[in-house]
Amino acid sequence: MSTKSVSPKSPRDVVIVDGLRTPFAKADTKLKTVHPAELGRVALRELFARTNFDVNLVDEVIIGNTGSPSDAVNIGRVVALGAGVPQRTSAHTVHRNCASALESISTGFDKIKAGMADVVVAGGTESMSQMPLIYSAEVTKAIAALGGARSPGQQLGALAGLVGADMKAIMGLLTTSPMARAPYKPRISIVEGLTDPFVGKNMGETAELLAKEWTLSRKEQDEFALQSHQRAVAAMKNGVMAEEITPVYLPPNFKEVVEADIGPRDGQSMEALAKLKPIFDRKNGTVTAGNACPITDGAAMVILMSREKAEKLGYKPLARVLSYAFAGLEPERMGLGPVYSSPIALRRAGLELSDMDYIELNEAFAAQVLACMRAFESDKFAREKLDLPKAVGSVDMAKLNVNGGAIALGHPVGATGTRIVLTLMKQLKRTGKEFGLATLCIGGGQGGAMVIQNES
Predict the structure, then answer these.
(1) Which residue has the higher pLDDT, 192 or 377?
(2) pTM of this prediction?
(3) Is residue 153 domain-resident?
(4) How many domains does the chain divide into?
């Protein structure tokens, strides 16, 4: 039974005044040419406009991002200046893989709680369409030689070296030994970038491990994926998602506009999902493109303030941040991260899982979410892995990702942490409910969680 012993309101409470995001679009679709800094700028500029906010009041801008673009390495600063934040205001970028945008909010929370700031803009942005490719040392050396060549003879020699490096890479990729392949990789792809260096598994392979360990069938995973699409489509049709989205006008002529998420499938069916083949374990696997989140482009922003500052400025906050937590676990089981971080965040808030009116648990994979649900309610798991006397609690499907999740909406890695907090906050306001938990797994073997309270 819950004590509901949340702390009383205080002037140093951290509150969220409002938030906004761009549409989320599958990579290589409508937003593929929009720079991630521009995605962030659009969301933040419109958030300032809708809240009639004076940008001179911002103390700090903190933006999550994972695929740092070469022309905007500290993308937080680029987003801030683009959105009209004064040059004197500092801005920085944070990177915690899938929880980068949750890290931005938690960092802002700490600054406000400590009295080091009163107003912090937090958020995240990601263009997974424009993720940088990293070339191997051998290919990079050959490209540098070509760039530095002066005479025709030097240019031909450098070009031959580049072709030779590429041929070595191709031959290396055809070998069977991973150790033989390693020195000759021509470039690092987005899939390799999401591979854990300690265990050598990419995120999809970690989902396959959870599916096997928790005996999750392909049918269970596809059913969960179908529900995600159905809920997201319903939220789009009834205008729920529109409450948190600002349109993006597409360059170069800015005549075409993207107003809604590109990902949720109206008419998705179990039959269509069943036709998809496993990706990460082609022989015995159950994780497919249909029951996993797509790689996605998008940005999300929120404005944090101390309660004292919000009241002074006349703002009525939408939510109060009660607590947050990050926790580590085995990298090969990174999908269980929410089960590790959520109990800590709940304890710090003085609440229990049963007190949560809504839960946003990021859907990296259906297998990962379903495994979390089983682990949450397992006494054995709680004792052996969490050092708790009993299970954390059961997750009610009627409270979980009620407007769909990342399997339908997508997962722009550097932005999702803010998106789930934003969606949760809007849902609490819309329904008049009180408490919510936003949580997600993090590549590399971590979990992040944040507990918020409806203020509206």
Answers:
(1) 377
(2) 0.91
(3) yes
(4) 1
